[in-house]
Amino acid sequence: MPLTLATLVDRLGGRLCGDPAWAIGGLAPLQSAGPDQISFLSHPKYQSQLAASQAGCVIVAPAFEALACNGRSAIVTEDPYLYFARLTLLWKQTQGVSPGPRIHPSAVIDPGAWVAEDAVIGPLCVVERGARVGSGTVLKSRVTLSEGCSVGSRCILHSGVVIGADGFGFAQHQGQWEKIEQLGAVRIGDDVEIGANTCIDRGALDDTVIENGVKLDNLIQIGHNVHIGAHTALAGCVGVAGSARIGAHCTVGGGAVVLGHLTLADHVHISAASVVTRSILQPGQYTGMFPLDSNANWEKNAASLKQLSRLRERIKALESEIHKNKET
Predict the structure, then answer these.
(1) Which CATH number, 1.10.287.130, 2.160.10.10, 2.40.50.1070, 3.30.1120.10, labels domain 109-286?
(2) How confident is the model at residue 97 (pLDDT cuts 50, 70, 90)?
(3) What pTM value is reported for the model?
(4) Catalytically annotated residues
(5) Residues 6+ apart with CB under 8 A from 212
(6) CATH class of 3-95
(7) Percent of the chain at pLDDT above 90?
């Protein structure tokens, strides 16, 4: 059935300016949307795109109602980006392809595992002995949930995710490495989404814990005994070393690294490509990288950095000499 503006506003709220019977043909960005598609304006800096857009309907904040309603329909709401996010969910529910079997025939589920009656297990998934999958959770293709690990309700694990591989634990003896058995598991809360090919290692003794509402991007490595607080989001290629603790409502930019046994307080935000080498106990934005530069300038700056320790000692000596001169 077509999704009309009247139905959309009835389901999601907002104030409609335009034809309630207008049927949405699709969702698209402002710059590429056609007359049968709906789009949104999330930031004032894109208002020039709104003026030029061919979209048949645009979701906007109250400040842009007059501009949006000029020759097209509009839905006015306080948070257009959030409204559009909820529209994507509604669109998939009402217009998406019909689902396949709840448990794909190629999936392997151990008799000792527990899977909720409404969970979805995709092609080539493996759910091992003692693992648990909560209500409404979806495991896409080739997900592995290892023994004793649990995933809460309404989670999405994308293709290739591995939950509960052994943590990287070894003891050195006479120049060789001896394995430390990883006896913990992984506990994942509710409403967690995990991107493709992300790996979360089981704990050595205690469990690795991912709390409610956490969002993990693709190709992330979470080491053993890591604890990630509720509603924290990590972008692609982040690495978190063993026993690190990341608080709630944090963000970690793509390619950043958090070293082992460190603590990040709630509401800490790490910029992309940063390396966190110390615990951060105060909320805020933190960055640990050089700005991009030409290679020649970078080499000069790198050479200067090597002299910082020597320069520091010289400055301390000069300060000491100045202090002595003042006293005399």
Answers:
(1) 2.160.10.10
(2) confident
(3) 0.91
(4) 224
(5) 152, 189, 190, 191, 192, 230, 231
(6) alpha beta
(7) 90
